Amino acid sequence: MSILRDDAQVALHDLYIALRESIDLYQFAGEYLHGAAAKTCASIAADRTELAARVAEAIRATGDLPAEPDRDRETAEKLREQLDALFADDREEGIIEHRRRAERELLALLDGETLSELGGGYADLLAQCRTSVTVALEQLG
Q1: pTM, whole model, 2 decimals?
Q2: Which of 12, 21, 64, 118 is the most buried (most CB within 10 A)?
Q3: Are 23 and 49 in contact (CB under 8 A)?
Q4: 21 burial class (0-12, 13-18, 19+ CB within 10 angstroms)?
Q5: What is the longest distance spanned by two Cα atoms in the chain?
Q6: Are 109 and 20 in contact (CB under 8 A)?
Q7: Integer angstrom CA distances of residue 97 from 8, 81, 107
Q8: Confidence band for 116, pLDDT divided at 50, 70 and 90
Q9: Mean pLDDT of 48-72
Q10: Which CATH architecture has domain 7-140?
Q11: In whole angstroms, what is the distance from residue 7 CA to residue 64 CA?
């Protein structure tokens, strides 16, 4: 493992962290939702867990180790989500809308400049991530 990362390693780490944060926040949202919404969050979290494992494998294949998400940032995000839901007319809809925004941000990361550094060797992995986001947005309504 090198202290300096190349552009592909940085891009893979950014993707891995985004997926891990997504997993944690869907699990958190699922704890506050009920019925179909909770099941949807659990399903998306399970899908993201599989994707994060694939990205972690790709990171290890480069000779690096996956990083862990910033827990302070996640805590702040959870607090913001709770506050948004608290002040929303419909608490469940507030949480779902927060997840929709996060999905659009993840899609922007996938289509952004940072991940363009990955090139063709990771095209299948990126396509799987995009599909996951598209399906999540459809499930969230």
Answers
A1: 0.84
A2: 12
A3: yes
A4: buried
A5: 50
A6: no
A7: 32, 9, 15
A8: confident
A9: 86
A10: Up-down Bundle (1.20)
A11: 12
pLDDT at 22: 94
Distances (CA, A) of 84 to 103, 123, 132: 16, 36, 25
Q: For the chain, give percent helix, strand, coil, nearest 5.
A: 80, 0, 20
d(CA 68, CA 74): 11
Q: What single string gives the DSSP state of each residue in 37-104?
A: HHHHHHHHHHHHHHHHHHHHHHHHHTT-------HHHHHHHHHHHHHHHHHSSSHHHHHHHHHHHHHH
Tokens 């309504």 sit at which residue? Answer: 141
Structure tokens belonging to residue 125 = 């992995």
CA distance 53 to 31: 23
Residues in the chain: 141
Torsions phi, psi for 92 (to 5 deg): -65, -45
Task: Give the rounded percent of residues in the chain with a pLDDT score beyond 70.
Answer: 88
